[in-house]
Amino acid sequence: MSEQTNHLFEFLLRQGDNALVLGHRTSQWCGVGPALEEDIALANTALDLIGQTQLWLGYAAEVEGNNRSANDLAFLRDAYDFRNILMMEVPNEDFGRTLMRQFMFDTYQVPWLTELQNSSNERVAAIAAKSVKEARYHLERSRETVIALGDGTEESNSRMQNALDYLWPYCGEIFGADEVDHAMSEQGVAPVPSTLKGTWRACVERALSEAFLVIPNSEFAHSGGRTGFRHTEHLGHMLATMQTLQRSYPGAEW
Amino acid sequence: MVSIQSITTEQVWNWLEAVPDPEIPVISIVDLGIIRAVDVDKDLIKVTITPTYSGCPAMSVIAMDIETELFKQGVSNLELETKIAPAWTTDWLSEKGKDRLEEYGIAPPQKAGEPQRCPNCKSVKVEKVSQFGSTPCKAQWRCQDCLEPFDYFKCI
C-alpha cells in the first residue's frame, strides 16, 4: 500500500471503528433498556451506527485492496488493529453514561460529518451526507435526554455528573491532529479534527449548563485508541463477544 | 414469459409499483422513493435503489422482493445497484404514498418535523412519546384527544 492509500485506509478505519464499537456497545441495551421506548430508541441508534459502519468499512476494504470485506474487518481483526477512540469502547455502565457518551459523540459527529460532505473524495462525501442525517437525529435525542436527566431528580443529576466526570478525560482524543489527520487535510479529504474543538465545546457547554452539570476542570485526555497504540482492556472483552461466531465458525454466513 | 426485447422502462416501473414495502405494506417501494432509476439495456434490466436508513434491515428483503417480482414477470437478467448519494429524503415519498400512510394510521412526514395531526381522529393536539419507533423510519407519538398512540414517519 502506498503511503497515500495507507493514510486514507487509516482514516476510514477511524470512522468505521467509531461507528462499529459504539454501535455494538449501544446494541447491548437491546432488550434491557430502562423503558420500552428507550430500548427501541437505543436499538435504532445502534442500527444506524452499524449501517454507517458497513459504508465506512466497506470502502476501507476496497481502498486496502487486500480482498477483505467490511465483515472481515469487523469480525477478524484484533483489538490492536481497531482505530476507534477509547470513549467508544468503555462499558455502558448505566443508562446515564450511555446517553452522555452518545451526546459527546453526536455533538462532534454533526459538525464533522457536515464538513465531510465537502470532501474531495466523493465516496467520503456520500457516506457523510447519508450519515449526517442520522447523526442530527441522534443528537436531538441524546441532547434532550442528557438535559432531562441532568435537570431531573437528585439521583439522576448525580448519575449524570458521574457519567460526565468519567467520560470527560476520554473526550480529548476526538480532536487529534496526527500525521493521518494532516495528510487527509492536505488532500482535501477531511479537516483536521482539532479544528472542530471550539464548535464542539460551545455546544457541549450550552447543553450541560441547561442540565445543571459541571464540566470537570481538567484538560487531561486519554489516548491510544485512534492510533491503535493502546486500547483499554475493555475492547478485547467486547470483541470476544462480538466476534465469537466468526471466530468459532470461520466464514459462516447468514 | 415476455420476450426481453419487448420490456420497456415504463413496464418495469409498473411492476415495481406492485412491490410493497415489507415493513409498511400499504405503500409500494416506488411510493417510498427508494427506486431511483430503471435502465433497460437490451437484455439487461438495471434497478437502482437508495436505502432509507444506512442500517435499514428491510433492504435485503426489498432486494429479494424486487427479484421475485421481476423474475415472475419473465425478466431473467437483472442487476440491482445500491446508490447512497444523493441521500434518500422523505421528500421522495409520493403524494399517493403519504395519503396511504395516513389512511393506514401512520402520520406522514412534515417539514416542520412533527406530525400535523392524529391519523385516527385528525386532532392537532398531539405529543411525542419517543423519537424512535418500530422501524428506523418512524417515531412514536400520541393523540391527546383520542389518546391513541400512533407512528409518525420521521422527516429526514
Q: How is the secondary structure organized here?
A:
The complex is a heterodimer of chains A (254) and B (156).
Chain A: H1 3-27, H2 36-64, H3 70-75, H4 86-89, H5 95-116, H6 122-150, H7 154-171, H8 179-186, H9 197-210, H10 233-242, H11 244-248
Helix pairs in contact in A: 1-2, 1-8, 2-6, 5-6, 5-7, 5-9
Chain B: H1 9-17, E1 35-41, E2 44-49, H2 58-72, E3 78-82, H3 95-104, E4 106-107, E5 126-130, E6 138-143, E7 149-153
Parallel strand pairs in B: 2-3, 4-7
Antiparallel strand pairs in B: 1-2, 5-6, 6-7
How many alpha or pi helices of chain A?
11
Tell me the major beta sheet of chain B: 4 strands, mixed
Radius of gyration of chain B: 17 Å
Principal-axis shape of chain B equals elongated
Rg of chain A is 18 Å
CATH superfamily descriptor of chain A: Ferritin, core subunit, four-helix bundle
User: Low-confidence parts of chain B lasting 5 or more residues at pLDDT below 50?
Assistant: none
Write down the domain tally of chain A. 1
